[in-house]
Amino acid sequence: MIRRRLPLMLTIMVTGILISLYLIISSPRVYESSALIQIDTSAAVDPSSDASLPAVRRVQLIEQRLMASSNILKVIDELELFRDAPELSEQEKITALRTNTRIESITNPGVPSESRMSLSAIVITSRAETPDTAAAIANYFTNSVVNRDRENRLSRITEGKEYLTNEERRLTDALSRQDREIAAFSSQNEDALPTAQESLSTELTQLNDAENTLDREIMALQRDQLTLIAGGTTAAERSASTLVQQIRNAEVELAQARRTLAPDHPEIKRLENNLRRLNAGDEAVSEIVRRQLELNEAQLANLNSQKATMDQRRTAIERARAKSPQVAERLEAMIREQSRLQDRYNEISRQLAQVETQQLLMDNDQTERFIVLERAMPPEFPAFSNRKKRAAMGAIGSIGFALALAFVLELKNPILRTSEQFARLTGTRPVISVPYKKSRRDILKYRLRVVYMGVLMFGGVFIALWLIGVIPGLPSPGTVPTTTQGLG
């Protein structure tokens, strides 16, 4: 079967091998370059005191920003990628660069993922058609990761410090305003405060005792006043009654003397003088009684004023004690708000101190930082080429396809060609087996087949050497990448 189908099989195998070789040679080469970033933590700083985000989270945020469409287009413009492929759209360029760039995180074994010490290093890998382009892309993203990490941390610290400072100032104003409101409320409702209830009870008892004393004094003054008005038996009243009797006796004696004596008699003058002296004494007693009544009235007015003041104070105390529950509830709410503001102020102050410490540590380069441990270098050999394996697979596939096709053609034309085939098919061995004698035409066809196979083999070898680029003066049709060709 192989001898009969050899020209066809050789044609298929040579054609398949040449096609495989052409596809391998003409396919673009892919170079891969990687850069290594180490996560360095200063030994002088406790990682738990770091106020920034964990390194794993920061890398995720940086990767999201780096792979954004706007940043990808910026990389393409700066590195002049895809300059030889103007037919590609922006979306196709973005997809190609994203596909051929990887940012991998290397974690510390045995460290929880949420820990700040979980990330050990970052590997940035880039693929391109040329070694220089692959290295340039990897180094560009490496620099972006290092620079953006520091910029992002500084930006977060600046924004956090500004926010915390404004919040601290706002809380300070709110606390001052709350203190003034509590002071004003306490001053307006001093008697209704819970702390004043005990003193108010004591004061109310004292007011009752003082009022009872005032009532007794008022009643005593009123009795004295009634005694003066009604003509009682006080010493002044007795003196006034005796004086009146003496005046009446003096008037009788003067009248008798005038009837018997001359008008200018000395006895009459003496009696007149005595009568005038007694009348003057009557007027003094009346003045004393009047003044005593006025003094009693003044004392009564003073005592009544004191009692009215006490009544007003008692009314104010009762009113304050009546609204004490509402005042206590309101004051408690204001104190709770003050405590909440104070707690918030303490927390903001603590966070602000952490941010300021973090900024100081970053200024002194004492915080967790990204260090470029290995920069990307142009690779010497393409990655994932496997050209020998692909060529061997193409040859094996071509040979297999040729054998399969030959076998199928044999099955479509089942001819008995030997006595052994006849015996296997019929079970009877032929008596005579005459060999086939070739005619001149058969001989010519055989020679043409040999010539065809020789030309086919020679042409196949020549084309293969040309594809490989071994023949001087004949350049290979395979693509020769340049540094500005892009990613392909």
Automatic annotation (TrEMBL):
<feature type="transmembrane region" description="Helical">
    <location>
        <begin position="391"/>
        <end position="409"/>
    </location>
</feature>
<feature type="transmembrane region" description="Helical">
    <location>
        <begin position="450"/>
        <end position="471"/>
    </location>
</feature>
<keyword id="KW-0472">Membrane</keyword>
<protein>
    <submittedName>
        <fullName>Lipopolysaccharide biosynthesis protein</fullName>
    </submittedName>
</protein>
<feature type="coiled-coil region">
    <location>
        <begin position="204"/>
        <end position="260"/>
    </location>
</feature>
<dbReference type="InterPro" id="IPR050445">
    <property type="entry name" value="Bact_polysacc_biosynth/exp"/>
</dbReference>
<keyword id="KW-1133">Transmembrane helix</keyword>
<keyword id="KW-0812">Transmembrane</keyword>
<keyword id="KW-0175">Coiled coil</keyword>
<feature type="coiled-coil region">
    <location>
        <begin position="286"/>
        <end position="358"/>
    </location>
</feature>
<feature type="transmembrane region" description="Helical">
    <location>
        <begin position="7"/>
        <end position="25"/>
    </location>
</feature>
